[in-house]
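Mods, move this if it's the wrong board.
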Amino acid sequence: MGVKLIDHNEINETSSISAYTTGESEQSQIDDISRRTDSSQTEIRIITHIEDFETLEKEWQELVMEANTQIFQTFEWNQVWWKHFGANKKLHILTVYTENKLIGIAPLFEDTVTLFGHKVYTCLRFLGSYVSQPEGEPLLGSISYSDYLDCIIRPGCEQIFYQSFLQHFNDINSVYDEIILDEVPKKSDILNTLLPLIASGDQELNCIMEKASSSPVIMLDSTWDEYLKSLPKKARYHARRYFKRSETGNPNAFKIDKIKDPIELPVVLTDFIRMHQQQWNDRGFSGTFSEKRMRDFFMEIAQSFYEKNWIEVNVAIPEEENAKYVAIDVCITYKNRISLMHRGMDEESQYIKQGPGNVLLYARLHEAINDGVKVFDMLRGAEEFKLRLATEIKQNQKITLCPDYKNGRLLPRLIKSSMNVVKYIRNERLHLKYLFEDKSFNSGLSDYIHLLHERIEQRSHK
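Not the wrong board. Structure tokens:
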């Protein structure tokens, strides 16, 4: 059997459902959209049109609630992401049915690289993942907006789903150079079921595994006092100190509010984006929301989640007459799990030295413990406060599946690598633009050196 399992973690810490509109040779391999697997009761259906994607909504929603999933696998997240980042790309959503019942979804799309108008590289990636050549406004960086990506599988159906997945990929492997599965969580069945199937099968397939991003997580205790006791002495002192400031009447206290008025929501979110951008710009970074499509995606997904009670926007307001909020946290609440999506603080406020961000965070942790929440996920990033509070670090993996390296596909891989270099240079130019804008050369250079130090420190925590 010609299977290679390469672990880069050890090497380097580094309507009707219809087919694509493609050339005849590709069409013949993809156009069999209702394909039987090892059982006459199992069927693979490939969704390539947005109309069929939207028709799948009810089945998708039912499956995602039953499966072991996070917010990034919901229909809503994937639909809104595709709307803002899928321009001129093609869907390739693999669905598997047994006895006409949906048992699993691999939410993929076709990511391509073109050179002089000719397609030179094609892979399948998760919706919510990276886009090699985005249409329209260029995307800064190569970071996916989604922190955890995975297939959606009915419990107990993992084996038959991934057998179907592998059969489909083997059938079309001359059309696609590889499948890239970014940001796969440690407990994913991709690692626990798919990779063992590959290792035990007869596919001429390479499987490359390397570290992706990591997320600091707080595993919460049953009571606030137990949580405090679990902290080191200094951290316990800070937790008590800042939590007291969330209680009315204490010195330097802040009022903690949840935004409940749907009319007020977009106003607060607009203020949040301004605060968030200012914080990162002052540190020499362009910031998540420097691009319009990122802002538009965030505003639309926040509104969608707000209507389903999947998101909350919490603010810290100084206890003074007519005072306005100086810190904003945006949290996802889904399946008894809280995820800290974004934070923003007005660092020009006179109240910033009183730690409104810390007050807001500890107040939310206290509330989460009282509500019986067991997981507070701070999502990816190596910010100091996350590493200080985390009880564990969740390490994601990047899985690349491709035919044997000797099959003559060296050119597409070289082009793909070149694209990454071009993207890095373009992004570095944008960072320098932000760093030196309205600053002297010496000041900008100092900020750039500081930025390089921060990058090195972040990489050391991965």
